[in-house]
């Protein structure tokens, strides 16, 4: 979670790929004491020292309510979820966290008149959806529990907005690429791991076929889109759930771009049936024209800029950790 108060926000699931960076950006705008990061894990020392952190379990409604009431929370960012490949390995746990946890958050937001942001995903689409590009409104019918839970969240949020006026906002994220955290079990995570492998062993074994095209985004674009969307005036929004897009590439395309900087990189392909089937059911590109029109969304990173930045960040990270850099 991320909690925001006056504006005070609570981030739950805040130690994942997205939470820490978004909390930092919000703290720069609203003051570090006005943004509370939370998770069920012990935070690293640097994250703990960055600003307020609390333990929060998305399945513990009483504790969440106490946090919201005692801290006078006004915004809630809900990042707690099991991702696609991990969710398929443990459907029962994914259903509990992704759906039961979501209902706790929805009830909490309604009860306390919170502004609620819940991310959705490329995984909310399925094999019968338009793939190139996928529009905001179309047949979805995903085939993973992760995707099913996200469609459920989109529709529940929209329903509660129309019935009770809940300020629910949702962005469908593409694959998000970041150097700050380890891959977390998503189908697009090869696009993070390949940078670590390029500067480490010099070899990457990819679990997708080389021509598998998926929409991707640099994490700073993802954070900026989230904040701009959260701050957008209600009157600007024609939807409660929007696609956001930046770039779309295949494993062989990103490998070719990396080789402009690390010529010795080699890549072999060993498609994993579970992840490949998931990727084949997802859009190749997002149509985000509504986000661009309604609240002015525009990405800053293309593929060359993303690759240059990721290599710099991963190299610095490896150097600081005393790891060799190829």
From TrEMBL:
Pfam families: Epimerase. Residues 1-16 form the signal peptide. Coiled coil: none annotated. GO terms for biological process: L-threonine catabolic process. Residues 13-245 form the NAD-dependent epimerase/dehydratase domain. It comes from Pygocentrus nattereri (Red-bellied piranha). Keywords: Signal. It catalyses: L-threonine + NAD(+) = (2S)-2-amino-3-oxobutanoate + NADH + H(+). This is L-threonine 3-dehydrogenase, mitochondrial. The keyword Protein transport does not apply. GO terms for molecular function: L-threonine 3-dehydrogenase activity. Catalyzes the NAD(+)-dependent oxidation of L-threonine to 2-amino-3-ketobutyrate, mediating L-threonine catabolism. Transmembrane segments: none annotated. Its EC number is 1.1.1.103. It comes from the Eukaryota. Belongs to the NAD(P)-dependent epimerase/dehydratase family. Pathway: Amino-acid degradation; L-threonine degradation via oxydo-reductase pathway; glycine from L-threonine: step 1/2.
